Amino acid sequence: MSLVILPESHVDHFAALSLQDKATIVATIMAAFKERPLVEGFQLFTIEGPFPLPCELVGPVMGQESVPESLVRYEARKGREWPSRLTQGEPVLTTKLTIVVGPHNGYPHVLYTAYPGLPAPREPQDPSLKPEEVEESRAFWSTHALIG
Known about the structure:
4-stranded mixed beta sheet, globular
């Protein structure tokens, strides 16, 4: 079974790339998915990308200092109704790509999102977050932020 990319797949992290680079990213994601064992349900995995990409996540998981509250502002990002923890700065280049796959509209394996960098939990205000996931999310996002 193959990975399906739908119009609602969240791949806008690659919007600034050339068509050729986007195609390379998609081909890399598809090849990595084919190499994985088929699993039902949601999957989150990180692969080596084909070239460095700018990652907008900053904080300890990226090998940086915690982002203090004094350097943060909260704003709703495009397509979200809740505020994200944002800071100023320059993206860090990384070859890591994180991919989230799961069932959707009758397809067992749909690309939900792919983004440069290491995995990050959903934000604490995300309505899709399960109650048992909120504390981990709060802990992570208290030391990390997105450049925006």
